[in-house]
Amino acid sequence: MLEDIKLLSAGFCLHPEFMSIRGGGWKPCRFPAGFACLTHRRHGAVLFDTGYSDHFRAETKSFPNALYAKLTPPHFEGADRACDQLRRFGIDPGDVRAIVISHFHADHIAGLRDFPKAQILCARDGYQAIRTARGIGGLMDGLLPGLMPSDSDARVRSVEDLPAIDLPPALAAFGQGRDLFGDGSALAVALPGHSVGQIGLYVPDSPSGALFLVSDAAWSLDAITQLRPPPRVVTALLGQSRPYLATLAKLHHLHHAEPGLAIRPAHCRMVAA
To answer: Where are the domains of the chain?
Structure first.
């Protein structure tokens, strides 16, 4: 069972609001690079994503990867790294047993190499995409394979290999979940559209109630509650518009059907400062 969940952020980037939500303004807004630390009674500390780390700067020093940092300039200090934040909570990075990766964009995986002993849980298609990403083509998909640990193949486990479990009726539209710990306390849920193999994390009974971490299926809670997607050019550039809009519509319906469920996008300003 889960004993604790901390919603944190490792840096942030700035974007004009209109790129993240229909009808938004031109003023740049702060989008935290959110991640979560789950403490499981048997498995100890487990992360959902990692946020930024200094590996991102090293990987984007030269062309073509430097374009990534120009388009989405990150803001973070060394102390913002997930590994350093965990140390302040008394958790050694070497003790992190597993990291669940929602998808392989750099602001979600840049800290992977700071956790050398963690198993990496992810969707099979997502990992295959970053393994085969090359040059400009990979960059256009938001993938920087140099951020992956050198021993990734030995450490990755596909969530599709985990036991399938039925989701509650309110989440039935999302299909089945994948049981991360074998006790139903945390379920990986497919959230197609934004990036290949994107998954969210559904926690039916966190210490503060039911929680659904939805990664980049939306960039703000307002986008979900008001059904306000980004402009279609943005969803098409970063993924596939039709699946993205379908996933967003499911989350919109879920929000109104289950108002007690906390739905949290990774970059929402209310999730982490």
So the answer is: 2-265
- Residue 91 token pair: 């958790």
**What is the SS3 assignment for 55?**
helix
Is 4:38 a contact under the CB 8 Å cutoff?
Answer: yes
Stated length of the chain: 273
Q: Give the DSSP H/E element, type plus range, for residue 246.
A: helix 241-257
**Residue 180 to residue 219: CA distance in whole angstroms:** 25
pLDDT tens digits, one per residue of 109-142: 999 999 999 999 999 999 999 999 999 989 989 9
Average pLDDT, the chain: 94
pLDDT tens by residue, 213-272: 999 999 999 999 999 999 888 888 778 999 999 999 999 999 999 999 999 999 997 655
Paired residues of 202 in beta bridges: 187, 212
Residues 6+ apart with CB under 8 A from 132: none
Domain spanning 2-265 has what CATH number? 3.60.15.10
